[in-house]
Structure formats: C-alpha cells, structure tokens
Amino acid sequence: MLTGVASRGLPQWSRQRSPGLAALAVLLVLGGALATTVLVMRADERRSVIRVTERVGAGQPFGSGVLQEARIADDGVSYWSWSQHDQVAVTVATVTVLPGTLLTRPMVAGGDGGAAAGRAVRLGLALKPGQVPYDLQRGERVQLIHVPGRRNGSEGPALVVEEAVVDGVSYTSGSAGQATVLVDSVVAPVVAAHAVSGEIAIAAIRAQP
After folding, report:
1. How far apart are CA 47 and CA 205, in angstroms?
2. Beta 200-204 vs 175-184: how paired, if at all?
3. Residue-by-residue DSSP string for 148-204
4. b/e map of 140-174 (b: 16 or more CB within 10 Å)?
5. pLDDT per position as a tens digit, 103-115
6. Rg of the chain over CA atoms, in angstroms?
7. pTM of the prediction?
8. Are 189 and 120 a contacting pair, CB within 8 Å?
9. What distance in Å separates the CA atoms of residue 67 and residue 48, rounded to the nearest whole number?
10. What backbone phi and psi angles, to 5 degrees, belong to 55?
C-alpha cells in the first residue's frame, strides 16, 4: 500500500487544449460554411436547356417528342434554351444527335432557328425533271452533284457537296421544281454558280430497303 508521501509523489496529468487543434476545428467549420455558400450560389446559376431523348439522324427533323428539359450549371457553352424548344422542334439536325445529348447551336439548322452561323447557309435551287428525286422531302440528306452541260462535254459529273440538308421543297406538275438546301458556307458560292447554269443535280441519301 502506498503511503501518503508516496501518493503525493505520483505525476499528475493535466488536460490542456492544443492551440493547433482548435485552429483546425475553426478552419473546418469555416470551410464547410463556405462550401455551402458556393453550392447555394451555383444553384442560382443553373439554367434550363434542351436535352434530346432519342437518336436524331443528320438531316432529320427533331420534333417536340424528342426534346426534354435539363437543368445544368452555366458553363458558358452555347446551348439551346428550353424556352426555345418550340422553335427547335421545327428544325433539322446538322449532325447525328444521340440520346442524352445537350443541344448546342451548331447541331441545329433550318426552320425559325436558322442555320448555324458560319457553317451553313440556305441556298435555293431551281430544278428540272431528272435533276432531283420526284419524292424529295424536307429534312432529307442529299448529295449535290455538278452535271456539266453540253458546252462542257469533256467534263464528267463531279460531287460538289457530300452531304446537305433539304430545308424545303416546292412541286410543279408532280415533280420538285425548286428546293432549298442547307450547305456549308465555304461551298455555297460554287453550288450557286452551278445552279444558275442549271448544272446541279440532287441525289437523296437513303438506306437500302
């Protein structure tokens, strides 16, 4: 058994607070509060854009059935706003759009939405029988082919535009008399020059039955 003198000689452990741990705790609290504030502010920056729910092939119309609202953070990308979904519904796709894609400006052409600035322009083509499929429809993907006239008999047909989109068709006597197509702005002058000479033919790009 310890005597009174021995018991008084035992070391006494005192609980002291570490200044470093206290400072760390304060920083964690402040950091959590700051993170919460940032999340709240970012939530206010979210915007409604258009998401495509089904595959839309290049040259095909979107239609309202494949458009869905999506809320995203504003990252500066030029997406189509959900408030414009009625406008987009009457346009066609310039590229194949897969399900889940957020719709950007260059993916859309035609209708009230217009062509993608700097990439595509509308071009009207006056056509004769034999220069265009009799059942050409708006939204179809087509090739534009230069077919030289008799004065250029030494030249053969040449592909001018590998893929264009039909934006409108008017019929005369049962066949297409004029078509409006969306083509790249780079080749538009060449196509227009051949069209004035009546040397442009349209070939529809269609899957084989």
Report:
1. 37
2. unpaired
3. --GGGTTSPPEEEEEEEEEEEEEEETTEEEEEEEEEETTTHHHHHHHHHTT-EEEEE
4. bbbebbbbeeeeeeeeeeeebbeebbbbbbeeeee
5. 988 777 655 444 4
6. 33
7. 0.45
8. no
9. 12
10. -65, 130
